[in-house]
Structure formats: C-alpha cells, structure tokens
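Can't paste images in this forum, so I'm doing it all in text. The chain is below; anyone willing to post the predicted structure tokens underneath?
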Amino acid sequence: MSNPSTYPLLSQIHSPADLRRLGRTQLKPLADEVRQCVLDNVSKTGGHLSSNLGTVELTVALHAVFNTPYDRLVWDVGHQTYPHKILTGRRDRMGSLRQLGGLSGFPQRAESEYDTFGTAHSSTSISAALGMALAAHQKGENRYAVAVIGDGAMSAGMAFEALNNAGVSPGKLLVVLNDNDMSISPPVGALNRYLAQLMSGQFYAAAKNVGKQVLKPLPPLFELAKRFEEHAKGMVVPATLFEKFGFNYIGPIDGHDLDSLIPTLENIKHLMATSPGPQFLHVVTKKGQGYKLAEADPIAYHGPGKFDPAVGLTKPATAPKTTFTQVFGQWLCDMAEQDPRLVGITPAMREGSGMVEFHRRFPDRYYDVGIAEQHSVTFAAGLACEGLKPVVAIYSTFLQRAYDQLIHDVAIQNLPVVFALDRAGLVGADGATHAGAYDIPYLRCIPNVSVACPADESECRQLLTTAFEQSHPVAVRYPRGAGAGVTPAPGLNALPFGRGEVRRQGQKIAILAFGTLLYPALTVAETFNATVVNMRWAKPLDVDLLLQVAAQHDALVTVEEGATMGGAGSAVGEALSAAGVLKPLLQLGLPDQFIEHGDPAQLLALLGLNAEGMARSIQQRFPTLVPNPVADPAHLN
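Text version of the structure:
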C-alpha cells in the first residue's frame, strides 16, 4: 500500500471519483505527489519516464473535468499513461510495471475499465475516440470522447485521416494536442514548423500590438485584454490548420498550469454540450517536467532502466555487450563511406534504430520522415527508382503499418531497398504491441522479397552487406539488445546469398536454426548428439542444404524466435513437401497467441525456447530417437 506520509493526498485517491471530490486548491499538491510517485516507481522498474513526467497536470485535469470512465479517454501511443494508471486504482501495483504478470507499460482494455482503448503504436487515438463519440451519438448516450495525441504522432497520415473524418461528423469529440516539441527523436517536418510558428508568437505578437493600440484609450478593456492574453494566447491567432479541418481550435495554453487547464476544459465541455462540432485543444508541456535531469535530457530519460533518482543515469560498472542496433549503426556508417549511393531512412526512430552517428556524419544522406511508416517505404521506393540504395531502419512491428507499400511500391517493382528490421522476436517489457513475431510470415509470402536471419552480431554485419549487394528488396531481421557476443570483423564482407551452414555434425536429429536461437540449439545438440544447421535465410531457403540434411537424418527440428504459423519452419515443411520428402518435422517458435510483457529470458523459458525447453520438446516428440531424458535439464541453461 502507498505510504500516507509519503503521499498524503494520493493515498486517498482510489479512482478519479475521489479526485473529483477534492477542492481545486488540492489538485496542484496532488499533481506533485503523482509526479513523485512516477519517479519513485520508474527508477525501480525502468520504463518510460520523460513522457510521463510531462503529462501529470494534464492527466489530473482531464480526470477532474470529465466523468471517466463513462466519458472515454484515449491516450495516443500510451507511453505517457503512468499518471493515468496511478489515478485509476493501480497505484499500489506500479512496482510491477512492465514485469511478467504485472502492469503493462501501455493502456490495456483487459487491465482496467479506464483504459478505454489499447494503444502502443502512434496516431490511433483520434480514430478510436471518433468511433467512440459516434457510437455514443448513435446510441443516444450523453458521453464525451477525448483523444490525447502528441505533436510527434500528429505527423502520421492516420491522424490526418481521422481529423478529416471528424471535422464533418457529429458527436462530442475533443482532441487534445500535447505539444512537447518531442516524440522519441527530435520532431521533424512541416507540421512541426507550423506548430513552432504558432508557439513563436509571431501572429500573436502582431495581433497583440494592434489590440494594444485599439484598447489603450479604454483602460478597463485594456486590462481585461491583458488578463485574457495570459490564459488564452491562442484565441487571437488567425485561423489554423485544425480549423480548416472543421475543429474549433483553442490554445495554445500551458499544460502544466492547472488554473488554466481546468477552466479551459470545463468551457470546452460546455461547448460540446451546447454546440455541434469537434473541439481541438492545443496544450504545451515539457517532457521530464519536475525532474531537472529529465528536463535537461528527455531523450536519455525517455525509457531508462533502473536508476537512483538522486544521482540520475550512470554508466554501468562494466561495459555492456554491443547490441545488434549498434552493429547496424556502425555498418551503416561504414557502408555509406564506401558507397555514395547509400541513403538512410527512419520513421522518427533515430536513437532507437542506431542512426545518431550516421546522421552526424552523413546529414545530407539521412532522412527522418517522422512517424510515417507508410511514407518511409514508398519514399525509399522513389529513391531506389533513381539509382540510390535506400536502407530503411524500422522496427519489425512498425513495418507492419506499411504492408501495402511494401508490396505495391517496393516488391512489385522489385526495387533494391534494404529493410533493417530491429526488434525482431520478443522485446520484453514492451509486450505484444512491440514484439516482432510476424515478420518472417508476412515477408516471405511476398514475391521478390528475401529475409535474412543472422545468428549473432558478426553475421548481422555480414548479412547487411549481403542484403545491400542485392538488386531486389531484402530484409535483415535482428533482435533487441545483444546476442551471443560475437565481435563483428571490421570489413564489409558478405556471406553467400541464400546459403546456410552446418555448425555441428551429429546423428539422427538435425536442428535447423533461424536466427539467434542457434546458440541454445547448439547447447541442446551436445546433449542429444544432434546436427545443428545455421540456416541464415528464411527466404530464399537453402533447399539444397535442407534436402541433404533431411536425407542424412531421421527427424528435423526447426527453431525460430518468430511465429510458427507461416514462419521459417513452415517454409521448411513446404520445401520438403515440394521435393516429395516425407520426414518427421517439429517446429518450435512463438505460438498462436500474443505474448505478454516480461523479461525476455523468462518469456523464452515459458515458451520452451530456451535450451531446456527445446530439449524437453524434442525428447517428447521423438522419444525413440532420444531415448534417454535429460538427467539435469538445468545444466542446459
């Protein structure tokens, strides 16, 4: 339970209804306690920090004014909802945040009735909230729907599609633009420049000066205008982009000033009750608000691990292993140095995809397109048409958002685009929304597209080079974090395209490994005296090697950190069938279910994809080929 001495007001809040019973003067100290609660818990569990510190007052104000959960509150992305979780009955579970069996780091409908829509990818909130507003309108229910979206998420086409639809729709919809001049990477694009222009005060200053000249002869009105100016600066700004969409635009206002936020939200609520048409509130917040270290470096504190709040982030005592993301970043710079045709593209994930150094060294060949995955892929296609060699650095789950562009604009035209698929497989604490479980199935069914699965850091660098050398689209999938720790060679040496290798020769059973599960497979093989094949490519499959191995063994096992349905194991089965080869086949991988958040090693163990689990599955499936059960399975890990 929360300590009343630490959180005297917050310890009394078990739901937003309790918050709404507080006096207005109590809300500021309550917000201070919520901010401290976020900092206390994230420093112990890790998680998103800067974004959550920035939304404390906005969260308090929204729950104070709207009758949640009856009124629907939809958070875009959802990585800023820790204050929301704290105020909606989950305060005492914050210590389990992002851990196996604990609270999700994002809104989940199954977790709370206050999480009205599950989110984790950006730019979905306006569409969802509009659907809720129109459902209420159709059913004759007097409820409001509020979407909270960041300025980074507003750069995505889906957000504008929703604005376009909402502007001509009935229903009580409020869109709150949480403008913190920050997504994960620094914001880019024309929309950001437009918001900066609004905030720069150029229009406002000109209008204010005209107003002063007009009102100076009338002191009472001049004084009134000055007070009005302090709380509703945006009211004198000329018609905005959002008004052209049919919204009533209000703002920008200070998103940390409850004395401005709450009256403004109350007035907007009254407007929605009495006047048709959607409302748009522009609030300005600061990432990391209230914690000086996060304010100074919101990127570093975007998603930190555990740390001491009094000290801040510190370098680990021992140097961490080189991650796959870092391997990619170094390869990108090295290949760009060698080939002037290379251009790098990211949909707003410069840091996450390891492109900071590339941006610094090759600014004219670096393109951050904002949170616009569809555009990033077609943009790459256009560059490829003109003889450049685009490398799209994108998370596996984010490429899902550009599937039509991948097929229609890249694959059908057979353009040489390299997709560096970060976060393939399980991602741990971010859970199902970010797990790259489906890239092998959704890529290998597309003609012209090849899929490489490096087993370690060294192979990752080599296979990126192989992919870059091809004249057709190739995806190289690699996981979050570090792998086996195999140091890449400094050169730009390629591996044979579409070819695997036998890593261990054994008998009876052959384990065909796709990706980083090669290493636990090698451990298992020592116990069973099995053959291990590093397949390297899910497409094209090394059919010659597969048939050779199949002819020499009694049974085959495939292992992959990806969906088994339609995955690399399925590709093996299809190839055997096409060759008329009947051979017992065990496919190990991710099951037909969404995998919750938790430590990756724990999750792999639960799914039977660690060495012990693989050994157990093989022994159960092929007891006559593996007659002796593992005496001490623990030694396998």
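Residues 501-636 form a domain with the Rossmann fold fold (CATH 3.40.50.920). The chain has three domains: 10-296, 324-477, 501-636.
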